[in-house]
Amino acid sequence: MEKLNNFIEENKGRFVEELFGLLRIPSVSSKNEHKADMHKAAEYIKKSLLDAGAKTAEILPTDGHPVVYAEKIIDPSLPVVMVYGHYDVQPVEPVELWKSPPFEPEIRDERIWGRGADDDKGQLFMHVKAFEFMVKNGSLPCNVKFMIEGEEEIGSPSLGKFCEENAGKLKCDVILVSDTSMIGRDVPSITTGLRGLSYVEVEVTGPNRDLHSGLYGGAVVNPVNVLAKMIASLTDENNRITISGFYDDVVGVSQEERQAMGKAPFDIEKYKKEIDVDELGGEAGYSTMERTGIRPSLDVNGIWGGYTGEGAKTILPSKAFAKISMRLVPDQNSKKIDELFISHFKSIAPPGVRVDVRVLHGGEGYVSPVDHSAYRAASKAYEDTFGKKPVPFRSGGSIPIISLFEKVLGVKSILMGFGLESDAIHSPNENYPLWNFYKGIETIPLFYDYYSKEME
Amino acid sequence: MEKLNNFIEENKGRFVEELFGLLRIPSVSSKNEHKADMHKAAEYIKKSLLDAGAKTAEILPTDGHPVVYAEKIIDPSLPVVMVYGHYDVQPVEPVELWKSPPFEPEIRDERIWGRGADDDKGQLFMHVKAFEFMVKNGSLPCNVKFMIEGEEEIGSPSLGKFCEENAGKLKCDVILVSDTSMIGRDVPSITTGLRGLSYVEVEVTGPNRDLHSGLYGGAVVNPVNVLAKMIASLTDENNRITISGFYDDVVGVSQEERQAMGKAPFDIEKYKKEIDVDELGGEAGYSTMERTGIRPSLDVNGIWGGYTGEGAKTILPSKAFAKISMRLVPDQNSKKIDELFISHFKSIAPPGVRVDVRVLHGGEGYVSPVDHSAYRAASKAYEDTFGKKPVPFRSGGSIPIISLFEKVLGVKSILMGFGLESDAIHSPNENYPLWNFYKGIETIPLFYDYYSKEME
Questions:
Q1: Is residue B205 part of a domain?
Q2: Which residues in chain A have Cβ-Cβ distances shorter than 8 Å to B32?
Q3: pLDDT at B392
Q4: Which of A149, A201, A255, B448 sits at a 20 to 30 Å CA gap from A161?
Q5: Preferred mutation among A96, A113, A181, A224 to probe B, highest tally of B CBs within 10 A
Q6: Boundary (domain end) residue, out of A236, A264, A291
Q7: Co-location of B229 and B83 in the same domain
Q8: What is the pLDDT of residues B253-301, one digit of tens each?
């Protein structure tokens, strides 16, 4: 422990410099214009892993952006931990709201600012540095593999096939992931549940061109007004989703479980203040934590149509669009939900418009058991470094690939995330506190120790 | 008549060239970046009027874009016709849908293509050329004034004050306007009614930044979902506007008047085909022509919020916006409707969001009597050049300043529009058929003749 702390203390500056190199690469997976950047980021990770002590590292093609794979096998009879992470990041729009340019990382107020600072370049880099320590210190207690992909932010469309085709190479006993948040800096937590995702784009077409809203207004069906009515009707007055069959496969959570979850520390006033809202909302009959943890939700992620520039333009628009996503809980299946959505949405279109729905992205939810050896190991590691036992916690986010790992590789994942809600991932001014970055590097080697002991 | 036709035939090419010079100036009144272009367009009009034979022409400042004023007084005892028009144009977005650049006019298929080709540069220019003919031919039968403004497309915010301050100079017996459409090329018509307008922009604010839609989705009120619900609730299942008090001042139209209006030629299948929709919509209990002519309407002109780029971004947006306009009929007052809208819209905002409403633009409706001397003169002029009596017709559009002229100057306006619905005004690919352009130049001098005789 002292060696580890000394190592961190002595190398702090270098760790940040190395991470900055990665953060400077605008590896936005959803945009074609960044294709070359994806390769640059993959190369950067590969080199970082070799420098840290990986025996081999390679960039493996997929149907989309490549996967960086590396390993260090010290003894085939020992267990294998596989670290999963991703080098791709979310888009940065609206870029004018960033206080410093998203791909020019800097330190302010003891935080690293930049796109990917937390999600997931910063968290991923903790594993690279923890690994470097264990190798240099000669204390690596088991075998390690790294699988770092470039398509997490677009739903990992290629990774399922990649895992199937490389199942032998990817064989492991547990998958270790840092891509989630803690409840708070003082409330260490381990994510035991994730929601699934069904993400669609809808297009409503009215007349064949933008019309003069005076000459035609009142007589021609307006696709923006229609889209508003269609979206409005997707949730009822209790904020339940109205799509027929939507809740059919939702696994209920027992009253005891709900009571146990209700004991997790949660300061609702602080939560509201942090995002500056007077009131929260959501499905009637559930608490805030339950609404994100155990219940599905439906959000419009973006909407556009007609004239959106300065001043007034008197048109009746030809088209309206929205990006709509649904977060899913076990045992909802994202493909089934896609289909329910499409058929429902088309069925509610009124005469006078045509409707098109495109599925953009999806994946399944996940629940991880707290009696798993890796959970116990992670719990002990946090207890050592945070001085208190971590809370098991169901996050509202989605890492669709996690449920796929279980299905394809037959392995559970353990979600040791060190982020905070204030890290503003997916938002302008994403950041990652240095404290969390170093605390992650300190906690990870302890996980390896405890896990190896659990597996003896 | 023969002299007039010869004049047009001999000068066709020059007329188009001169109009092109005006069309090349991007005088978009709603955008600050075009401020210099507004002055350029005003100068162009001033010079055109002097060249055509105006005794004096000047560019007069207003609180906004300037007014071009010109006159030719031949005998103070004769009546005064004042031509009103505007040199400003609508924005051109979405510019990628234009087949030729909006400010590079060209002739294709016997039409002039470009922003303003019809509305209103093309129609305004017919008056300049008809005036030129009457002056050169020595046949001008009365006095003429021109008042050409630069803010019609943004609701003429400065012209009311301008008219009040220049009431003496603007004294006239009738105002002549070509800024409307005919029912069809074979169905000449004179617009006898216009709708008023109330145009607002709404802003719904939820959390202080875009949030991760997984971590927060289901618990935090989403401003886009809220805006959709608010817009949806503005009209009921019969497409009646739900704003309390909205219909209070709507003047009903008698069954006889509705029957007379129903006799105006209107081919609903052609109308639907032209805009490529299967069905029309609108307020229950009214025909298509009634829905635009005698009933108010509410349209979203534009909507935006959240992520609207390529691919999927999983955010719960901080803000959502919409531009919403209501077309009004006599005796609705736009300022009263603005206030009803604001108080209604704020009242329906749910907890968890803040709502702001900004009034962008507005004006009152207008009804012009068919027993007015100027209407009779216009009717005879059309009958001579089109070979048939024009149909009186209530347009759904708005020229807010027309009702203001009546209020401030005490003068009726006569709306001799030569446009067609297919001219796509306010849309990409605005155009104006050469046939209509020349037909207008041919008809206008006849109006002056008949009107002067009516006034003897």
A1: yes
A2: 310
A3: 87
A4: A201
A5: A224
A6: A291
A7: no
A8: 888 878 877 887 889 999 999 999 999 999 999 999 999 999 999 999 9
* Domain at A183, CATH number: 3.40.630.10
pLDDT < 70 positions in chain A? none
Cα–Cα dist A378/A338, whole Å: 35
CB of B276 within 8 A of CB of A207? Answer: yes
Specify the DSSP class assigned to residue A206: -
A193-241 pLDDT, tens digit per residue, is 999 999 999 999 999 999 999 989 999 999 999 999 999 999 999 999 9
Per the CB < 8 A criterion, the answer to whether A132 and A8 are in contact is: no
Give bridge partners of residue B143 from the DSSP assignment: B80
Q: Tell me if chain A has a CB within 8 Å of the CB of B426.
A: yes
A108 φ, ψ (degrees, to nearest 5): -140, 140
- CA-nearest residue to B429 within chain A is A209
Is A398 close to B212, i.e. CB distance below 8 A?
Answer: no
Q: Are residues B376 and B237 in the same domain?
A: no
Nearest-angstrom CA–CA distance, B81 and A237: 59
For chain A, report the end-to-end CA distance as a whole number of angstroms. Answer: 21
What is the ipTM, given to two decimal places?
Answer: 0.83
User: What dihedral do alpha carbons B44, B49, B54, B59 form, nearest 10°?
Assistant: -40
Place of tokens 């009571």: A259
Query: Quick check: A370 contacting B, CB < 8 Å?
Result: no
Domain for residue B152, yes or no? yes
A34 touches chain B (CB under 8 A): no
Pair A284, A301 in one domain = no
By residue range, what is the domain housing residue A234?
Answer: 196-250+296-363
Please tell me whether residues B145 and B158 are part of one structural domain. yes
The nearest CA of chain A is from the CA of B323 a distance in Å of 8
C-alpha to C-alpha distance for A35 and A65, rounded to whole angstroms: 8
CA distance A246 to A340: 7
* Spatial separation of the C-alpha atoms in residues A412 and A408, rounded to whole Å: 11
A368 CB-near residues (< 8 Å, 6+ apart):
A191, A192, A193, A375, A412, A413, A414, A415
* CA atoms of A32 and A43, how far apart (whole Å): 18
Look at residue A371 in the predicted model and tell me its pLDDT. Answer: 87
Q: List the single residue in A197, A222, A300 with the smallest CB-CB distance to B224.
A: A300
SS3 state of residue B420: coil
- The residues of chain B scoring below 70 in pLDDT are none
Same domain flag for B190 and B201 = no
Binding-face residues of B in 201-240 toward A, CB within 8 A:
201, 206-222, 224-225, 227-229, 231-233, 235
Tell whether B93 lies on the interface with A, counting CB pairs under 8 A. Answer: yes
Distance CA B378, CA B174 (A): 12
Q: Is B24 exposed, middle or buried (0-12, 13-18, 19+ CB in 10 A)?
A: middle
CB A318 within 8 A of CB A353: no
Which of B155, B220, B320 faces A281 most closely, judged by CB atoms? B220
Residues A86 and A145 in one domain: yes
One domain for residues A133 and A144 = yes
- Specify if B256 maps to a domain: no
Residue where a domain stops, chosen among A306, A338, A363: A363
**Inter-chain CB proximity B220 and A424 less than 8 Å:** no
Domain count, chain B: 2
Helix B434-454, helix B373-386: angle, nearest 10: 140
- Which residues on B lie below 8 Å from A283 (Cβ)? 218
Nearest-angstrom CA–CA distance, A401 and A398? 9
d(C-alpha B99, C-alpha A330), whole Å: 51
Minimum-distance CB partner of A218 among B199, B209, B295: B295
Q: Which residue out of B120, B301, B420, B425 would a mutagenesis test of the A interface target, given it has the greatest number of A Cβ atoms within 10 Å? A: B301
Same domain, A281 and A357: no
